[in-house]
Please model this.
Amino acid sequence: MNILLVSTNQFGYLIDYHRYYTYLKNKGYTVTYITWDYKKERIEGDNPDIIYVSREGNKISRLMRIIRTVISYDKKQNYDRILIHCFPMVSTLLLYIDNEKMRLDIRQVAIHNKKFKRVFFDGMMRFAAKRFKHASIITDLAAEHIGITKYKLLPLGGAYFSKSASANSDTDQYKTLFTGNDFIFLYVGTLHKRRMIECVKGFHAYLTKHPGAKAKFIIIGQAIGNELNDIKEYIAANKLHDFIPTLGYIPQNKLAIFFQQADCGITFFPLTPFNDVQPNTKTYEYLINGIPVIATSTQDNVKLLTQTDIPCGIVIKDNAIAFEGAVKQMMETKELYVKDAIAAKFRKYEWDNLFRQYLDDVLGLPKQKEEAIS
Model:
């Protein structure tokens, strides 16, 4: 079977689609991936399956360019399935490509600060989903928020990082972060619109009240605006470099050492109506790797962390005081969190386990494909 994946996120920077690609290739399918080129580091840069599309010009010209590229490649390859990460003007493809083989995939609700933009983009996704014969979405809550009734679920999952994956010479530079027997708090993800400065201030408050505490807060991620600079300025002003290292963006294939060494994962963003219905990849990823989580109390996080029979995390409000309290609670009760038990409990959310149930169904893949390949 010949499959095309389309995403306006650069290849490797939207984890869901990177994992779709890897899973489908491992099953023996022919897979092409069309993506915008943001001029970021190219993950799998020499991979001929990845077709990069220029983002030169205004928004309309950029969108039309990727649409024309999809149409052109489908004419040449005649794909059996096309999975498309929803983007503006995506319905234009229906004029040129058979609706039956296309799958529209919605990974998040609109998260713009301005309400009129959220209403517009949620409406755009609702409009597209009603015109595509096949649509998938990340959660039932997101579908209800947008107003979609006909869809298949394609839930969020996470990656498991094995010990062997952490034995990577490219990550030797980070090993010194884990000397000293500190309890490691870890945040991995974008800093854009996350108010991570609240966590930094909360962690600082904890250290101030508990001098000599053996704890470190590692922040991995970058920002579109000034969020990272604001964090670094706060760290410098309060001489926190040894306690809160900020490492910028690190590719997924170099994160294993952090997930092996972390004692607690952080999922934090403002508690808004649109964030409340949006699951977070890293919550799943921490849990799959046996790491307890401090997370803001969205509906998905509450369900994951409180509706289970083993201790696996703490849900909080979206402010520095709440984060300080959670750090204190985690440090005082850390013996309650058993890595192996947490990993076993949440293994079902590992990407490949989810894909066998959901992605195969969304794409209408033959159920016996794996046996045929082997």
About this structure: The CA atoms of residues 140 and 153 lie 7 Å apart. Residues 59-77 form the longest helix (19 residues). The two ends are 15 Å apart (CA to CA). DSSP finds 15 helices and twelve strands in the chain.
